[in-house]
Amino acid sequence: MAVLKVRTLPAPVLRQKAKRVTTINGSLQKLIDDMIDTMHAVHGVGLAAPQIGVSLRIAVIEIPEREVITLINPEVIRRRGERVVEEACLSVPGYYGEIKRSEVVKVKAQNRRGKEFRLTGEELLAQALEHETDHLNGVLYIDHVETPDKLWKITSQDNQTFEHPII
Q: For 111-157, where are the E strands, in sequence order?
């Protein structure tokens, strides 16, 4: 396994729509394992393949008290409600912002064996599902910030007590 370099703005891969995965093989399994190792190493809640420079529709998510969720070719098929959250991103270091996310999100995806499944998430899981599928479409959380005064620089004081999920 390997910890890979996380791409940050202005890396072009972050703004591209990722390609569908058509073949699940050993090299894809290694990529998923490396993504999980990288997500753990950088203390992220989730990681999308474009964040490590790979333009494929793959994401991994791990929230407290749940096993790692691998999503291949995920699609959001239902959203319900709306809530305001403060969010940060590994690919936009040093900032966090206030945005609107859905209260409940349902996705359709394949697991790492290629089996299709559906997953419904609330709260942090819903937020992570939207955040990571956004990455696969070339969208970053900062695109959802309504006004510049809703995006804040993380200060060293914030770092001591930063409680917002880094997705």
A: 116-122, 151-153
